[in-house]
Amino acid sequence: MVHIWERFSTKPKLRVSLFAFLLFLVFSPGDARLRRTRSVSPSTEGTVETYNKYYNYVELTGRLQALAQKYPHIANLSSIGRSVQGRELWVMRITQDPNTDSPGKPKFKYVGNMHGDETVSRQVLVYLVEHLLTKYAEEPRISELVNNTDIYIMPSMNPDGFEKSVEGDCSGENRGRNNANDVDLNRSFPDQFDGTTVNSSSVPEVMAVIRWIQEKKFVLSGNLHGGTVVASYPFDDSASHQQEGHYSQSEDDSLFRYLALVYSSNHPVMKTGQPNCPEAMEENFKDGITNGAKWYDVPGGMQDYNYLYGNCLEITMELSCCKYPPTAQLHNEWDLNRESLVAYIEKVHIGVRGYVKEALNGAALTNVSIVVTGIRHNLTTGKYGDYYRLLLPGTYDITAVATGYTSMTVYSVQVLEGKATECNFTLAPTRPQVFRHHNYADMELFLRKYSSEFPSIVHLYSVGRSVEQRELYVMVISDNPTVHEHGEPEFKYVANMHGNEVVGRELMLNLIEYLCRNYGTDLEVTKLVNNTRIHIMPSMNPDGYEASNEGDVKGTKGRNNSNNFDLNRNFPDQFATITEPRQPETVAVMNWLKGNPFVLSANLHGGSLVVNYPYDDDKKGLSQYSQSPDDKVFQQVSRAYSQENPLMHNGHPCEELYPDEYFEEGITNGAQWYNVPGGMQDWNYLNTNCFEVTIELGCVKYPLARDLPQYWEQNRRSLLQFIHQVHHGIKGTVSDSRDGTGIPNATISVEGIDHNVTTAHTGDYWRLLVPGTYSITASAHGTYATVQKDGVEVVDFRLTRVHSDSNGQPIEGPQPTKNPSEKEFESLIKDLSLGQGLEKLVRDTATEKIFRYQRYKELSAFLRGLTLNFPQITSLHSLGQSVEFRTILALEISNKPEEAEPSEPKIRFVAGIHGNAPVGTELLLEFAACLCINYGKNPVITRLVNETRIVIVPSINPDGREQSVEKQCTSTQGLANAHGKDLDTDFFESQPETRAMMDLILDKSYTLSVALDGGALVATYPYDKPVQSVENEGTLKYLASVYANNHPKMHLGETGCSNNGQSNIPDGVMRAAERLSHMGSMKDFSMDFGHCPEITVYTGCCLYPPAEQLATLWAENKKPLLSMLVEVHKGVRGVVRDKSGKPIVGAIIVLNGGVRVFTVEGGYFHALLAPGNHNIEAVADGYQQQRQEVVVSSYEAAISLIIEFDMDNSIFGLPREFVVASAAASMTALVVTACIIWCVCAAKSNRQKDGFHRLRQHRDDYEDEIRLTSMGSKKSLLAHEFQDESESDEETLYANKI
After folding, report:
1. Active-site residue, from 6, 501, 513, 696
2. Which residues form the signal peptide (predicted)?
3. Given a cut of 70, is residue 1001 above it in pLDDT?
């Protein structure tokens, strides 16, 4: 078991989720007061700078307020937030008309005093504010800059740290660097390599700046520090986090170098590259600039965050060697930096700039990506559709890309020195070409058209059929649509579950068209399709749709399926018992969900406008909030949809129809709205890994066709945003540490959330979570963690398989050596147990067959025909004869059918114990034919036959079979044999058929037996007789579940059998006695006397269905039958021998202290076991007992053991030599004692001879006594002959009390 602490953090692939979280935090209502513009109050302090003091917080506030009051036409003072100790984070905005936003002015910012004890930046930025304001009307250069630039200056990002610092402290010894929580603000931003490593609550200053950056879309920025003199540019760290010397290059490296040079070349000291700082005299920087990471590694820095996530290019300027120099140096520092500060701002106007507008109405388009060919770093447009892309002089191809619009590229854009080149874009929206209602035929053609037109990303398939035999189509859209790709989540939309709620049906067709036509040109669509396997079912109820009418506002015609059942009340429910028969649409969807590792889903309905999340009902049946363990996750994904649909998010969806209905934020808990037992969304959550919500798309159920375009426009963004949610949370792989192969069905649990998910076939998993810190555990049978990982969203587990002795120590002694052929076969078993291996085998071994029932003569001829056509792999044996002298035949299939191969597992398939249920007989005949025909052609079948001894007994009761009648589903005619005996109650040797089977079973060489019967749809395991507990029940139940899980219907547990009163059987598996308890069954005999587990599979409700149904029954049972051939090769196998290598036959292998199997010729044994830990004990006369612990996997071939016995040199637990010596001494003593007694008796006898006449005088009395004694002995002997040695119930109870 693996147990790690998982920090919910960000990797480059999944940045979006983190920043959605950050923006949620920083834009929460509670922070609104921090964003409003601060009113300025008059200050008594003058506005003329004297450069003779540092401003503390109060003085800084007064100074800035005074300047803002004096220059209101170009200055506005506001706070973007507060520090830990409640000080305002002041920002002075300087531009023409600073109280309003207007297009065409790029935004620039300076941030100072991020480290509280680096104080020069704080002062020079105050001086810069005064300089820009006072020179505005005097110097044309300043006037032009202020008029055309939106300048923001923050003198102090860390006012608390400044208050703690001490003037003259050049090296920062007074601990004012960090904020009041002692956190370094320039190590606290989300990092591209490490994600978020700091709790947001400890750095309110950082959270405020993140909000500010995201809101303003700055173009260029400078972050001012102290401690040396240099301009540093991104990246500040690298993936390796090498402490220094590693150049970490960004996509805009040349541009960053240019910008850094602009600052350094205008700084008299910095441009020399030799700051001559006393504490680092040897430090020098070429041209006064450096790559940040090359200088030293800084994870979590602000400049990298600006570039990667903020649309903004930022460099860091170190202004002075001394962090907090004396006041006397302030004027000099201003003189050194004044020109650099102004020249750097001017560079916000280089490159290319322009607007992106909508082609139809000229509206500004926001968040459009501006892509420069050859530079893999994009920025996005602002709220006016404006963009500013800084570039060096040159020729560029520039593209504007927006979701929902056709991309536009302008080629060969010339960028010159100086002012930016203007380049505008006009984008035409992409939308479905035709809006109309599609009936079934129209929809089918639409799907086939897109499947044909886009084969590289589209795959069309059907999951089943409706009552009226319409296909339930699903369109998969992905870059590899036909298979599940490891690590790629599976997503689904299901629509039109209620036939008259049609908006979802049409939206799904619109979405298919939109995704297909925008793939490869739209970045968002391309990313979604490349990284998600999207399944779209446009109509779950095509029959109901055909009965519906356009214009239906709130009716019910067509709502239900053709059997008039509501499909959204037809799923098994956790609280209510669903009595309605399971509908074919429901069964098809349940099978579909069980067969795919879906992560997230939405069920699209109509009649309101809201997202409804689990649970849908309540155990009390009341309309009240019914919370699931993942309530927060469901609210998050529901909100993601509603927020993109303004009308839905408003919460008052259908005021004309339902004036009192209100849903806060457009979402609701299902049961709180109204109770829906048997709903699909709850079944998804409780029975699969999939989180599903139900989305009501509109107030009108079947709107007019002319209204469909507005539904698309309202929901397009929501539909895409909801798909994005599948990538939130954690994901990873659980693999075996030995060979790296994925472990399927491993459990992923989250501490505090009572809902687990499991890994898919290749070991990959996805677990949706809201942002936070979690303890994540991965567990699988017999495995434990070898590594722990923190701080990542991708969480991989490597588990180590346990294989030890009874003390938990690794097994010592001989271990089996495997040749390449054995390893290849083990790999084959694994492939067949995982993924689509078995499905592929079913497809690859399809044979043409016209099914019909075969009577005894035809059956015998068929079996003999197999032996004639396939003599090298078949052998036909007679087990005996029935009452009416029909031969009971057994067909053996193996590569050496006439030879005993004790090292191979032996499996028995039997059918026809009840003559009135002949389906099993026909299935086994076709199964035998399938194996024979594919032998030598299909490599998998060939290998399975070569490695297995297969015995098939198709008809145990041929006499009853001859009496049975086709199409009789419940008739008992033919159930019994010719003597009228139910053979499954007669395994006491009274009937010839059972005697024949008992002889076969007593061979004791079988590993597994599968019996086929009819009259139900369930797999049962021992015992049939009523017993309170079953040894090894876990294994027996598991074997039955393997069959049921590979059957398309059985595992659902919904038999639909009205004839036997059983409708809901969990997982389609039950103990046989719970179905129909009886004594003398074949299954029980096989367990008790054959030491072989046997399961009985009931293949269908009808005992003797029409022959036309045989093809369907074969299709349903072929995969389960093949799975048994695979399963018989699992568990544990091995050989028992002594130290000399001699095999020990008849040794007892005790499994978990109970069930026993015996070694056969060659010392071989094979036992099937459920996945998990098991204790194996080997016992043989004259040898020491051996114990081992093994771990069995659900997907790996049997564990091989070699058990070597030592001679047992103890007698009664004592050393043999001691026991022999003691026995010799005892015998000597007995002989001596006997001699003494004889001598004494001989001496006495001479004195008592005269006493014999007294005995003779009473001879008659003596003879009477002898006769009485004799009679008593005979009675006693007679009584012993029939004595019941078992304890009475009272004796047992008494013994148990003792």
Report:
1. 696
2. 1-32
3. yes
The question of whether 696 is a catalytic residue gets the answer: yes
HEC readout, 8-49: CCCCHHHHHHHHHHHHHHHCCHHHHHHHCCCCCCCCCCCCCC
Q: Could you tell me the end-to-end alpha-carbon distance of the chain, in angstroms, rounded to an integer? A: 41
- DSSP tag of 334: H
Do residues 725 and 769 lie in contact, with contact meaning Cβ atoms separated by under 8 Å? no
Q: What's the CA gap between 1129 and 943, in Å, rounded?
A: 12
Read off the pLDDT of residues 1092-1101 as tens digits, 9 standing for 90 and up: 999 999 999 9
The pLDDT of residue 1180 is above 80 = yes
What is the biggest distance separating any 2 CA atoms in the chain, rounded to whole angstroms?
Answer: 163
The encoded tokens of residue 248 equal 């970490």
- Per the residue annotation, which of 130, 318, 471, 1127 is the catalytic one? 318
Residue 141 CB burial class (10 angstroms; 0-12, 13-18, ≥19): exposed
CA distance 239 to 608: 50
Percent of the chain with pLDDT over 70: 87
453-470 b/e with 16+ CB inside 10 Å = b?
ebeebbbbeebbebbeeb
pLDDT tier for residue 1243 given thresholds of 50, 70 and 90: low
Q: What angle do CA 461, 465, 468 make, to 5 degrees?
A: 140
Q: Cis before residue 235, ω within 30 degrees of 0?
A: yes
Q: What's the chain's Rg over C-alpha atoms?
A: 42
Strand partners, 91: 78
The three-class DSSP label of residue 96 is: coil
Amino acid 1215: pLDDT? 55
Q: What is the DSSP letter of 1108?
A: G
Q: How far apart are CA 1080 and CA 861, in angstroms?
A: 32
Mean pLDDT of the chain: 86
Res 1241: pLDDT = 61
Query: Contact, 902 vs 1164, CB < 8 A?
Result: yes
Tokens for 1123?
């799975």
At 1172 the pLDDT is 84
DSSP 625-674: ----TTHHHHHHHHHHHHTT-HHHHHS---TTT-TT---GGGEEEHHHH-
List the alpha helices (DSSP H) in 1077-1215.
1082-1088, 1110-1127
Query: Within 13 A of 1100's CA, how many CA atoms are on the CB side?
Result: 23
Instruction: State how far the Cα of 1155 lies from the Cα of 640, in Å rounded to an integer.
Output: 55
Q: b/e map of 233-249 (b: 16 or more CB within 10 Å)?
A: bbbbbbeeeeeeebebe
Q: 1018, 1100 in Cβ contact below 8 A?
A: no
d(CA 220, CA 393): 17
- How far from 127 is each of 67, 167, 334, CA to CA, in Å? 11, 19, 7
- Asked if the model's pLDDT at residue 1284 lies above 50, the reply is no
Residue 25, pLDDT > 60, answer: no
CB atoms within 10 A of CB 362: 10
Residue owning tokens 């874009």:
425
CA angle (812 as vertex; 809, 813 as ends), nearest 5: 160
- Is 832 within 8 Å of 838 (Cβ atoms)? yes
The H-or-E segment that residue 141 falls in is helix 140-148
Predicted pLDDT of residue 818: 66
Residue closest to 488 by CA, chosen among 497, 478, 502: 478
Quote the tokens at residue 43: 């200050």
At which residue do the structure tokens 């090298």 appear? 872
Overall pTM > 0.70: no
> Counting Cβ atoms within 10 Å, is residue 182 exposed (0-12), middle (13-18) or buried (19+)?
exposed
Decide if 665 is catalytic. Answer: no
**Of the candidates 699, 711, 709, 713, the residue with the CA atom closest to the CA atom of residue 653:** 699
